[in-house]
């Protein structure tokens, strides 16, 4: 791949941030984990597989024009959607202001009126915004886990309140549908299914080996069958989606049984009752 060159390091209140050039690839790393990448000669492309699967949201909501992305990283999802869908307006919420600067400075995140970046907590933003979205993408991680406040039923119902009819919520999640380490994924799946009529899961072979692979979960009330979804993927949503191999993503739609009887719906912790005073 070529020489390894660290071009930026900084410790923010949230992360140890490192930007590294590995030959033809630029990588964003938090602590020990790779978060984003881009090819230096093709800055809208990445060697991560999962960002492409987030475009499957468009197969459920082909007329989408407003997307909210919670979690910025190097901006792989945001800048590709901005380039590929000229009618799309994107709001992005990122907790760490340093990451916003890194995405612009090192990963060619466009400064454009169609991209609004908010430095805020993703949940707090959704609880206070008056905006309505066609797609809400949750791609935020604390180490290698989605922060719990972004996975609870209460959060998901807030997200649903800000979705247009037949809108889609999409998660990038590291886990497994089966096996000893599957419970976090299965809890999220059960929680999504308690809020939306339909939940779809796409699997891929990457991620943290000890914890599983990247999984994309889509929740929506859109009345779309698996066959229709596969058909839309196969024809790239009428030619709209250009990400590589998108026409084959239907092969990665998980259709096996997902057990949920032994895992809880994820909820917010109970609030402490105020003490009585005499």
Question: How would you describe this structure to a colleague?
Answer:
- The protein has 278 residues and is α/β, with parallel strands linked by helices.
- Helices cover 24% and strands 28% of the residues.
- It is built from 9 helices and 11 strands.
- It is globular, with a radius of gyration of 19 Å.
- About 2% of the residues have low confidence.
Tell the overall outline: globular
- DSSP E strands, number: 11
> What is Rg?
19 Å
CATH topology: Rossmann fold
Q: What is the CATH C level class, in words?
A: Alpha Beta
Q: What's the SSE blueprint?
A:
Elements (H helix, E strand, L loop, with lengths): L3 E8 L4 E7 L2 E6 L2 E7 L10 H4 L3 H4 L5 E5 L5 H9 L4 E6 L2 H10 L8 E5 L2 H7 L4 E6 L14 H9 L1 E13 L7 H11 L4 E6 L9 E8 L5 H9 L1 H4 L39
Parallel strand pairs: 5-6, 5-8, 6-7, 8-9
Antiparallel strand pairs: 1-2, 2-3, 3-4, 9-11, 10-11
Quick rundown:
This protein is 24% helix and 28% strand.
Structural descriptors:
9 helices, globular, 28% strand, alpha/beta, Rossmann fold, 278 residues, seven-stranded mixed sheet, 24% helix, four-stranded antiparallel sheet
């Amino acid at each position: 791949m070529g020489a390894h060159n660290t071009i930026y390091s900084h410790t923010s209140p949230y992360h140890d941030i490192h930007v590294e050039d590995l030959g033809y690839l630029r990588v964003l790393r938090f602590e020990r984990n790779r978060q984003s990448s881009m090819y230096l000669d093709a800055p809208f492309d990445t060697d991560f597989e999962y960002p492409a699967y987030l475009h499957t949201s468009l197969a459920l909501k082909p007329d989408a024009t407003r997307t909210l992305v919670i979690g910025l990283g190097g901006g792989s999802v945001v800048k590709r959607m901005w380039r590929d869908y000229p009618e799309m307006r994107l709001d992005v919420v990122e907790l760490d202001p340093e990451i916003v600067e890194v995405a612009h400075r090192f990963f060619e995140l466009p400064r454009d009126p169609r991209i609004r970046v908010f430095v805020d907590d993703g949940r707090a933003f959704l609880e206070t915004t008056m905006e309505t979205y066609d797609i809400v993408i949750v791609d935020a991680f604390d180490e290698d886990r989605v922060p719990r406040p972004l996975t609870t039923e209460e959060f998901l119902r807030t997200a649903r309140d800000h979705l247009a009819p037949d809108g889609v919520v999409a998660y990038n999640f590291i886990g497994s549908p089966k096996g000893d380490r599957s419970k976090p994924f299965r809890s999220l799946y059960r929680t999504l299914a308690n809020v939306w009529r339909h939940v779809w899961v796409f699997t891929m072979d990457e991620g943290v080996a000890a914890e599983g692979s990247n999984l994309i979960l889509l929740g929506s009330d859109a009345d779309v069958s698996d066959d229709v979804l596969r058909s839309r993927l196969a024809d790239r949503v009428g030619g709209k989606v250009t990400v590589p191999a998108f026409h084959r993503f239907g092969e990665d739609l998980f259709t096996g049984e997902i057990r949920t009887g032994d895992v809880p719906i994820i909820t917010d912790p109970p609030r402490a009752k105020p003490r009585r005073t005499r």
